[in-house]
Amino acid sequence: MEIILFVYLFVCIIHFSRSVSHSEVCQWESFRPQCPKNDHVIQITKAYFGRMRSGRCLQPSVNYVNDMIGCNSDVTRIADARCSGRTSCVIAIPDKELDNLTSCRADLKSYLMISYKCIQGWLGWVGLGRGHARIQGRVKVEKGQMIVRLRVENFTC
After folding, report:
1. What is the pTM of this model?
2. Domain segments of the chain: what residues?
3. Which residue range or ranges hold the SUEL-type lectin domain (predicted)?
C-alpha cells in the first residue's frame, strides 16, 4: 500500500467589522450567509439550536407552548467549523448532527438561531502531493488582524 502525504496549509487573515447579522432558520429552511463584498469571509459569532423563544419559527398556538420553550444547545462550534473563514456555506434544517445535540423532545421541531458577520480577509492554501514534506515559514499579520485557522492534514490511501 502506498502512503501519500498531503499537506494543506490554510490561513485566513482578517480585519474585524462591527456589523452582525442575525437569522432564525426554521424547519425546511437553509442558512445561506452572503457577504456583500468579494474580499470578505464569514465569521460565526453565536449559534443555538432548539426551541429558544416564540417568534417566526415558533408561533404560540396553544396555552402550553411556553412549557416547550427553553430547550436548546449552543452549536457555535459546529456552525463555526462549517462556515467561518469561508465565502459561502449552507446549513439546512433539519440537520442530523444538530438534532442529536438538542435537549428538546424528539417530537418537537427545533430551529437554528445564528449570528454572523462579514469580515475582510484573505483565504489561501498550499498543497503538496506524493512523498514527505516539511514546510517552514512565517505568517505576518498586520495590526488588528489575527489568524483564525491553520490546518495541516495527513491523508492515506
Report:
1. 0.66
2. 20-121
3. 34-118
